[in-house]
User: Fold this.
Amino acid sequence: MLVLIWDNAGWHVSRAVRAWMRDHNRQVKAARAGCRLLVCRLPSKSPWLNPIEPRWAHGKRAVVEPDRKLGSLELQRRLCDHYRCAHLPPLAQQLP
Assistant:
């Protein structure tokens, strides 16, 4: 079993993700092989329980512009520059 500790980000609680996880766990149980997933959700509005939150907030303040929205590629480039990390392509979309 794999335990996931998640906040309430939209992609964590989306209908597609919940359906995929439910189907995955059913398949693992039926096959009696593989790794089941158990999600433990953090309470909403509790950033002190998620130590990465202050870094996200700091990064957001460092790269956004209040008068316009950034495009996806520009936002990725700015975040990678800010955190001094290599830009990697996003993971392929695997949900239905």
About this structure: The mean pLDDT is 87. Residues 15-31 form the longest helix (17 residues). The two ends are 23 Å apart (CA to CA). The helical segments are 10-13, 15-31, 53-63, 72-83.
